[in-house]
Structures are given as structure tokens and as C-alpha cells.
Model the fold of this input.
Amino acid sequence: MRVMRAAAAAALLCAGLAACSSAGAAGGSGSGSGAVAAASSDVSFAVDGTKTYGTLEVPAHRSGQHLAAALLLAGSGPTDRDGDQPSQNVTPQTLKLVAGVLARQGIMTLRFDKYFTGQTGAGAFASDPGTVDLNAYIRQADAAYVFLRDQPAADRQHMLVVGHSEGGFYAMLVADTVSAHPAGLALLEPQDQRILSLVALQLDEQLNAAVQQGQLSASAAQQQAEGIGNAIAQFRAGQQVETDGLLPQIVQQLTRSCSPRGTQRSRALTTRSARSTPRPRWRRAPASWSPTAPRTRTSRSARSARSPAR
Done:
């Protein structure tokens, strides 16, 4: 139901542009009168030495008619062109459903397998996956936008970018880097918190689960939560980050999130220049036991199992 609401929201956000463009069922540019059937095609394009695979959906239209065109960007993690994570048994088909809804609005779409998903795989980063960064993902999305823009049926004056979840971040960056800029953006369930605030909540869930499973005492979990808060505050202030006493798994997640690559996406979307904040120095925590609770979606009730609240 939630996925269908996201698809419907995308349609509402884009329908106005479609109505004003050549995509509307009653209007359209071009002098052709023959009907062109709807088509869904597997396509590919190259970027930075990687062959990227995707699906191009073109709704039924008149010959010579140009359609509003939307690039669909997937959320975080190993999410493929359809919005699925097959390796995690998660298959909501979010982007595939969005593409279907937009097709009924007369809008053509392109969705693609980003790095480390689907047919695209690791591509040029296969030998050293750790070297992939935000810029690589944005260049890949930019190339997808250009590929869609250059399709014969696409209306270059009515290009759209639709981002779901973390794809909303990418959509804003792509809108700024491509030429010509899109006529509209649709951000579906975008992240509404700062990156490190979300990381803190996710770690809070893990600590909560460890307490509930008897792997960690409530007082120890509270101490870890306070240490996480202090580390994040120090990082944001450009200070040396103290992680003494934090569990190694927590230090690993914080270090990954606070590394230049991990924070690149959030700093790319802030008005403060990353150069204005000194790079923090990290002190490693000593080796110790760590909980094995899985990483889960966060909730504001995560602290309920611990007392007192932070």
C-alpha cells in the first residue's frame, strides 16, 4: 500500500508537466498521425568504462509525438532498477510500479541498475569496490539522464527526475549537474534527517535489540548511546573524535559514515562548504565484544527499552 502511494504521488507531481507538455493524450508536437504501441525495452549505456543496464518504458503515442520523460533513481543499498533488493528478499518493485503509473500519464521513463546491482554489477569498480564514491553514482545517473534525453520520443523541454528515498538526494544533485536542467523533480519519501542523525537512530535500534535479546545490559547500552552522541557532536564540530569505550561494530559504522566518502552526499547538499570544517581525527576503540543485532529501519520509539531516555 505504501509503495502504491509513492507511485501515485509521483504521478500527481509529474502529471502537471505532462499536461503542459507534448505528452498529453489530447495534444502533442509532431505531424505524424500513426499510432505507436507502448513498449518496454532493455537498454544499456556506457559510463566511466561500465556498461549500465536499464529499462526504457515508452507509452503508446502518435508517430512524431514527443513525450515528457522521467529518469527514476533508486534508494540506498543494493536496490536495482525495479526498486528491489533480491539478495535481501525485498521485492516491492517500487520503481517498476512508478514507471507503470507514469506511463498511464503519458510519461516515458528510464530506470537502471546502479553500481553493484542487477546486470550492471560492480563494473569498473570490480577490482577495488572501495573506490566507488558519490561522484561515480552521480556521473552514472547523469549518463542515464543524457541517454533518456536523447531518445527520439523524448521532449527535451519536459525532462523530469524522480528519486525514491536516497534517490531523492541524487535527484537534486543530478538536476544541478545535467544540461539542460530538468523541468521538474519528484522526491518520493526522501530522507528528512541529517545523515549522522539517521545513523545514530539506526545504532540506537541495534543497541535496543541487544538489550531485548539479553546480549547487553541497559546501562551498557545507555553508555554506548551517550558515546555515539558525543562522537557525532565532536565530528560536527571538527574536533578529534573520541571512541574509547565504544564497541568495535559501532566504531566501524561511525567511521564509515563520517569518512569523506560517507559524508560526501550530505555535505554536497549543505550550504556550508566542507572545506570550512577541519577533518576530524579518529581514535580507535579497544577491541571488545559487540552486539550482532541486524541493521533495521529506525523508529522514534527505539529508546523505549532503555531508561533513562537520552
